[in-house]
Amino acid sequence: MKERRLLGNYATLRDNNFNLLRILAAICVLISHAYPLSLGAGAEEPLERFLGGMSLGSVSVLVFFSISGFFITKSFVSGVSWQQFLIARALRLFPALVVVLVVTIVLGGLLLTTADPVTFWGSAPSYFLRNLTLVKLDYSLPGIFEGNPYGTAINGSLWTLFYEVVCYTGIFIAGVLGILNRPRLSALCLGLAIMLCLLMPYLPVNLRLQLLSQLALPFAIGMGFFLWRNLIPLSPFLAAMLGFLAWSAYGTEIFRPVFVLALSYTVFVLGYWPNAFLQSYNRLGDYSYGTYIYAFPAQQLVASLGVTDPLVNIAIALPVTLICAILSWHFIERAALNLKPKFFLDPVRTHGPS
Q1: Does residue 196 lie within any of the structural domains?
Q2: Is residue 132 part of a domain?
Q3: Cβ neighbours of residue 21 under 8 Å, at least 6 residues apart?
Q4: Per the domain annotation, does 52 fall within a domain?
Q5: CA distance 229 to 238
Q6: What's the rounded Cα separation, in Å, for the pair 351 and 75?
Q7: Which partner from 219, 278, 299, 349 sits 20 to 30 angstroms from 75, CA to CA?
Q8: 172 near 86, Cβ under 8 Å?
Q9: Is residue 354 one of the residues assigned to a domain?
Q10: Domains identified in the chain, total number
Q11: Domain containing 336: what range?
Q12: 216, 163 in Cβ contact below 8 A?
């Protein structure tokens, strides 16, 4: 009898396709954003008419969060200490964010703004600090992109980072309380979290909680995939069946959660699909985060030049974005990750988050 491919058999392997899936998802966000950035807010993005209002970009963000839920949980469970977990997460997220904010301010102040210098540079510190803390983002700087079809937002993609940090915090709290190492308790807490995500659209809560529930759902599913990895098979047939269930539920209230489950499961089937050619991408680097944080300003810059065709926007902004992402990875992100052993008390034993 052929042995089943269980997720747990692959969860420790570094030879996987997740770097490739993430960069493809980041590029899909760029493609999706090209339509409103070129044509104006309200322009229909790819997939919206077919997925009940979900665009290609929003589906890609779901992919990011399902992958993060799996690997961030793995990071805490396999890490040596909670201090290492926090340091690893901060080094992965904030150095590249600092750089993109500084680059935005400098280039905006020197080359793009139509505002007077006093007004622009007076607003720069607030823009930097508010976007670095992620709590209350400031999307605009004086005199930049004021004639663009979409408006003055410089980096509209940053909004998801706040919710990512919130999800990281949930993992941190669960890990410190020992919930992640207690199967029954973790099942109960995760089930309650998923139920709350499903109920949130029907509750009179503010927009932030609504958005959190939408993104926390794939994150929680990814988390559950890791916690019960030794019970979950990796089956293309099961992925197809879940896809069929989602298609069957289209137009009903359960479509979105079933779609998120089907999408998340399919991501892991593809992520651990054994293929040497696909896995060769890992030799290049992890360019997904850089692509995500540089795409929106690059596309707004293209739009400011008078480009109103989404396909032309993609053709110009994509290579510029990829160059920025490659530089960000090799000179900022990887350099920051290499600092981890200097912060850890026992680098020899370090096998925590990457």
Answers
A1: yes
A2: yes
A3: 63, 67, 267, 270, 271
A4: yes
A5: 15
A6: 9
A7: 278
A8: yes
A9: no
A10: 1
A11: 7-349
A12: yes
